[in-house]
Design a protein that fits this description.
Elements: E1 17-22, E2 25-30, E3 33-40, E4 45-48, H1 54-64, E5 72-76, H2 82-85, E6 95-99, H3 100-120, E7 139-141, E8 144-148, E9 155-160, E10 170-174, E11 179-183, H4 199-211, E12 217-220, E13 226-227, H5 229-255, H6 260-275, H7 281-296, H8 307-317
Parallel strand pairs: 4-5, 5-6, 6-7, 11-12
Antiparallel strand pairs: 1-2, 2-3, 3-4, 8-9, 9-10, 10-11, 12-13
Helix pairs in contact: 4-5, 5-6, 5-7, 6-7
The structure holds zinc ion (ZN).
Residues 79, 81, 84, 165, 184, 193 line the site of zinc ion.
Length: 319
C-alpha cells in the first residue's frame, strides 16, 4: 500500500510546553511541531516566528499573555517557510523583520510554498481561510540587525549565518542569557527538512557559525530546548550528522551514475537507525534527497516546490 502523502495522515494534536529560559525569555515547544519564541523588552515584546495561521498564532499569544501583556513591537521571522510566517497578522506587530534573502524568496516562491506546505502538513493549517495573504517584512537586512531591549535587558542580535536550511536563515541571539533561537538551522530530535537547502554550506561553515555562539540555551526549529553547552553542541552536531549522512549516501549513488531512487533508499537505510523514529522523517526524506541530488547536478538555486511537484516526487520515491 502506498504511504500516505507527507504528513497528511498525521492528525494527532501536540501538546504545547512553555519554557522560561531567563528573565523574559520564552520558548514554546510542541512535541516536534514547529517551535516559537518571545523575548521581553522593557516596554515591548519581540516575537520570534509566527505559526502557520492566525488561529494557531493566537493560541501561542494566549499562552504568552499569561507572562506579559506588553505589545508585540517586532516579529522576527527566521526564514520564509509558510508554516513559520503565515500566521503573522495575529501578532499586530509594529514591524516584521526578515533577511533580505528571505524577502526575495517570498517574492519568488511564497505563493507556491504556501500551497505546498499546507498540503504537506494540513494539521498545522488551522482555519487556513483566515490567512490574509503572503507575509511581507517591513524591515529587511542583509547580514545583521540589532534590537536594543531597554533597561538592563541587553539586546537581540539577528544575524544571517550563511546559507543552510534556506538561502536566508537568520539566527537570533540574546547576549545576556546566551540564548540562541536557531530556526530550522538546528533541530532537536526531529528530522531535518532540506528541500530548499544548501547542504554543503549548511553542514560546513553555517553550522560552524551557529556553534561558535557557544549558547547556553538553544531553541531549534522543532523539538526540545537544549540547555547547557554540552547539549547545545550535541544538537548542532546531531544536525550535522544528519546532513553528512545524506551527503555521503546521495553522493555515492550520484557519482556512480545510480538513480535517485537508489540514492533515496540507501539514504533512508543509512539514516533510519539513528533518525527514523523522529518526527517528519518519512515525510521529509523524499524532498530532501531530491534537493541534494539537484545540488550534485549543479543546480545552485533550489527548484520551487509546488503542490504538483510534491506529489510527483513523492510518487517516484515513497510509493
Ligand atoms: Zn523551514
Amino acid at each position: 500500500m502506498a504511504k500516505p502523502f507527507a504528513s497528511a495522515a498525521d492528525t494527532d494534536v501536540k501538546t504545547d510546553t512553555l519554557e522560561t529560559l531567563g528573565e523574559g525569555i520564552y520558548a514554546l515547544t510542541a512535541e516536534g511541531d514547529p517551535n516559537v519564541g518571545a523575548v521581553e523588552g522593557e516596554d515591548f515584546v519581540v516575537a520570534i516566528e509566527s505559526r502557520a495561521t492566525p488561529a494557531a498564532s493566537r493560541e501561542w499569544l494566549k499562552i504568552l499573555r499569561g507572562q506579559t501583556d506588553k505589545p508585540v513591537r517586532y516579529l522576527v521571522l527566521t526564514h520564509y517557510h509558510a508554516v513559520r510566517v503565515l500566521g503573522a497578522s495575529a501578532f499586530d506587530a509594529g514591524d516584521i523583520l526578515m533577511s533580505a534573502a528571505s524577502r526575495d524568496l517570498v517574492a519568488e516562491r511564497g505563493e507556491q510554498d504556501w500551497k505546498s506546505e499546507f498540503g504537506r502538513m494540513p494539521r498545522l493549517a488551522k482555519n487556513a481561510e483566515e490567512v490574509p495573504g503572503l507575509t511581507w517584512p517591513t524591515i529587511t537586512f542583509k547580514d545583521r540587525y540589532d534590537i536594543e531591549l531597554g533597561g538592563d535587558r541587553g539586546r537581540l542580535e539577528l544575524r544571517f549565518v550563511g546559507r543552510g536550511h534556506t538561502g536566508g536563515d537568520v539566527a537570533v541571539w540574546h547576549d545576556r542569557t546566551r540564548t540562541l533561537f536557531a530556526g530550522d538551522l538546528v533541530e532537536s530530535k526531529a528530522a531535518l527538512y532540506t528541500g530548499d537547502a544548501y547542504h554543503f554550506d549548511w553542514a560546513g561553515r553555517t553550522l560552524d557559525n551557529v556553534k561558535a555562539y557557544r549558547a547556553d540555551n538553544l531553541v531549534g526549529g522543532r523539538g526540545a530546548v537544549s540547555r547547557g553547552l554540552a547539549e547545545t553542541d550535541a544538537a548542532v552536531e546531531q544536525t550535522r550528522k544528519f546532513l553528512n549522512g545524506m551527503i555521503e549516501n546521495v553522493g555515492r549513488f550520484h557519482k556512480a551514475g545510480g538513480t535517485l531512487r537508489e540514492a533515496f533508499e540507501a539514504t533512508r537505510d543509512a539514516l533510519a537507525p539513528a533518525f527514523g523514529a523522529w518526527p517528519i522523517f518519512e515525510h521529509c526524506l523524499p524532498f530532501d534527497v531530491q534537493r541534494l541530488w539537484d545540488e550534485y547536478d549543479g543546480i545552485e538555486h533550489p527548484r520551487i516546490w509546488t503542490a504538483e511537484r510534491d506529489r510527483e516526487v513523492w510518487a517516484k520515491l515513497q510509493d
